[in-house]
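Section 4.2 – Deliverable D4.2 (structural model, holo form)

The reporting period included a commitment to supply a predicted holo structure for the target in complex with fe (ii) ion. Inputs used:
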Amino acid sequence: MTDEANTPSPSRRALLAAGGAGLALGAATGAGAVTAARTDDTAPVADTGAAVPFHGRHQAGIATAVQDRLHFAAFDVKTDDRAALIDLLKEWTEAAALLTAGRAVGEGAYGGIPEAPPDDTGEALGLKPSRLTLTFGVGPGLFDERFGLADRRPEALVDLPKFPGDNLDAARSGGDLCVQACADDPQVAVHAIRNLARIGFGKVAVRWSQLGFGKTSSTTPDAQTPRNMMGFKDGTRNIAGNDTSNLAKHVWVSEKDGPDWMAGGSYLVARRIRMNIETWDRTSLKEQEDIFGRTKGEGAPYGKRHERDEPELRAMPEAAHVRLAHPDRHGGAMMLRRGYSFTDGTDGLGRLDAGLFFLAYQRDVRDAFIPVQRALARRDVLNEYIQHVGSAVFAIPPGVADEGSWWGRELFTGKA
Ligand SMILES: C=CC1=C(C)c2cc3[nH]c(cc4nc(cc5[nH]c(cc1n2)c(C)c5CCC(=O)O)C(CCC(=O)O)=C4C)c(C)c3C=C
Ligand SMILES: [Fe+2]
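Output (structure tokens):
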């Protein structure tokens, strides 16, 4: 965000209020350049300082290239007033378009009325857009009696079952709304969530949030596969951001899936998975490799030489993680994994409070996350070293089409 990014953007509120008409006005004022729609929703952005266009058929932050850092926030909605919630979603959308373009929110961080707090908190001034993406979702709680949305709850937005071994902390689980902020600069991601939370003051409150520092999956298979906290390459067999056929088959909700308002959207499962790092670090290399069914150095599946060779499941131990999670065991089901490593200091007993903040996008959790996690929870040898301690599921609406639209518009105004 350059210092010019502090410049107020007076046309923005007017643009939203003007609905579709705002598009032409936006182009005339130059705002159009800032928020140009993605023509190819999946195109990876190589320049880590660049801006990822906010508008498009799908929300950015799913198939777009995975950035280095994460700040994820789940919110409880504190108001019962439907109109107030809609106003907030419009304000959030306006702010999100500015933030992802590397601009300050509202009237900026300085130069406004000296007697009032500035609209923007200011810590991202001078920083680049850093490929910031902001991805918005709605949790099951939004469909209770408060907002008249009960008949709009997607059948696929199920409450996740309790899996064997779950040790979930309610304070790190659930949420009525979520925003996933990903960026190549942690300060940019944190600034975005902080400012959205600030805008929402009185209407929403952060229920829990999670910082992530190292991506554990990528959507760009030509790049080096990142490693997780256990030292293994993670994300080798992920869905690539340019694999439009698998994205359509496994990630994007189609028109015929219903409900209408979710077409072009997806479902997100978030799990905070704690790793028993110290125990893992005392485990032999052979046992570590047996647990995944892949080699630690190359990341090759057992029985093969190269990382990207097709796994041969029979060459792996029966209860190896990859063998149990493989699509062949689940009717071909796949998900787009987009998780991050986390380390939240130590736990008071001198053990690292670290692990994987697992994020997976899919077309229907009943076909993907739930059956795969059922199999893993029952038999995965990795379970000796991990514990699921937080959980949430969200419906991720389609992208914001243009400057006249807003997060959740289809949900609140469209057909059920
Ligand atoms: C329910 C879904 C999954 C959870 C939860 C999960 C946790 C988890 N995974 C790793 C490390 C690796 N996972 C790998 C592959 C892999 N994992 C899942 C699903 C879940 N993982 C799938 C669907 C796959 C791909 C299977 C395939 O198609 O072959 C790998 C191997 C490399 C790769 O393909 O990504 C690693 C390593 C950890 C550490 C973990 C919990 C902490
Ligand atoms: Fe996995």
